[in-house]
Write a structure and sequence with these properties.
By secondary structure, the protein is mainly α. About 70% of the residues lie in helices and about 0% in strands.
Length: about 270
């Protein structure tokens, strides 16, 4: 049920707009650089533990509120981004798993979550999320997409030796595929949404790495800390705008792709 209560929970996700994608890409970059900054600032084990704690707190807040609240939702997304990056880096740096293998592992995990979600609920639409169970599936999927995107971005930048700028350009071209498919109405809007959602992760992370990492690693050398701070300010500003302007559509929206399309149901 959309536009009301199903299982005691109102719709908990934002409208898919240009601002949604802007915050999403900024959050992916912030997660990447913040993770790199923290594991170099403090002991990596403590950094990962802090990331897990922050994610847990953010998800508790998001799951506790009974409706979509911009700051609560995007806080959860940012913490998923930070911890998702750490999870992918732990596999590669901590356990020595090649990015090609971790990419495959996260891809299988994501496919499994989406398959179970669809078999249980009959929909993968984010605007049909009006129950605790669907919300749990949603956040499990989001976490898997961030981990997968991190691994894919590092795979192209380092293993395939494209570098961070070239990787960002590559994913910018890739994300144009679901955009064109959506606007030409030649693809399922749920498929285009999740395709774009996955690709925004390596897109934002590659560009943030390019700006923040030192020259010897192929970056501009601005520093991961300053880049994280700048992206954080951008995110706070955009989320604040959503909260004050209340310009997002109320529950009862049609099925989203890269943006809402008329004539399609969400569940």
């Amino acid at each position: 049920m959309i536009g009301g209560v199903s299982g005691g929970v109102m719709r908990k996700v934002p409208e898919v707009t240009a601002i949604f994608w802007a915050i999403k890409i900024a959050s992916t970059g912030m997660g990447e650089t913040t993770s790199d900054y923290l594991v170099r600032l403090i002991d990596p084990v403590i950094a990962v533990a802090c990331g897990a704690l922050g994610l847990g707190i953010a998800l508790v807040i998001q799951l506790t509120v009974r409706r979509y609240i911009p700051w609560a939702y995007w806080l959860a997304v940012v913490m998923v981004s930070v911890f998702g990056t750490m999870a992918a880096d732990v596999l590669h740096i901590g356990l020595g798993v090649p990015y090609l293998i971790s990419t495959g592992v996260f891809a299988v995990a994501l496919a499994g979550i989406l398959l179970v979600w669809f078999l249980v609920e009959g929909t993968l639409s984010i605007h049909s999320i009006a129950s605790r169970r669907r919300e749990a599936f949603y956040w499990a999927t989001v976490l898997a997409t961030f981990a997968l995107g991190t691994a894919v971005g590092d795979l192209t930048a380092t293993t395939l030796n494209l570098g961070y700028l070239a990787s960002g350009a590559l994913f910018l071209l890739v994300i144009a595929v679901p955009a064109v498919a959506h606007w030409s109405r030649r693809a399922n809007p749920v498929v285009t949404f999740w395709f774009a959602y996955i690709v925004t992760r390596p897109l934002g992370a590659s560009l943030a790495d390019w700006v923040g990492l030192p020259h010897w690693r192929g970056g501009l050398g601005w520093g991961t800390g300053p880049v994280s701070a700048a992206l954080g300010v951008l995110i706070v500003g955009l989320v604040g705008f959503l909260s004050v302007a209340k310009n997002e559509r109320v529950p009862g929206t049609p099925e989203p792709g890269l943006a809402a399309r008329p004539g399609l149901r969400a569940d």
